[in-house]
Amino acid sequence: MPNYTYPIDEAWTTEEISTVVTFFSKIEQAYERGVNREALLAAYREFKEIVPSKMEEKQLDKQFSKVSGYAIYPTIKKAKEETAKTIKMTK
Fold first, then answer.
1. Is 14 helix (H, G, I), strand (E, B) or coil?
2. How would DSSP label each residue in 15-83?
3. This protein's superkingdom (predicted)?
4. CA neighbours within 13 Å on the CB side: how many for 63?
5. Whole-angstrom Cα distance, residue 76 to residue 40?
6. Which CATH architecture has domain 14-82?
7. Residue 87 β-bridge partners
8. pLDDT, tens only, 5-24
9. Cα 5 from Cα 65, distance rounded (Å)
């Protein structure tokens, strides 16, 4: 478990929070040990159902990156552009 708090919107339901936390967890996995590309993209699609706004996504990415050192945008960009089964990021 990380020793920081995920950026969460208090208006989200418990299920939505769970979905967002799962997505943040996949981003962490991409940096720490690698993550299954399809699982990451599926988690991102579910995340986008909760956070459809690009502006809100950028704000969450900034908050998440500030506390974790991991970034959503380059991770998803790499997952969309590459065909490798596993996505591994470096800081």
1. helix
2. HHHHHHHHHHHHHHHHHHT-EEHHHHHHHHHHHHHH---HHHHHHHHHHHHHHHS--HHHHHHHHHH--
3. Bacteria
4. 13
5. 8
6. Orthogonal Bundle (1.10)
7. 35
8. 899 999 999 999 999 999 99
9. 11
Q: What's the pLDDT at 80?
A: 97
First vs last C-alpha separation in the chain: 19
- What are φ and ψ of residue 30, in 5° steps? -60, -35
pTM (two decimals): 0.94
Structure tokens at 28: 């962490």
Pairing status of strand 86-87 against strand 35-36: antiparallel
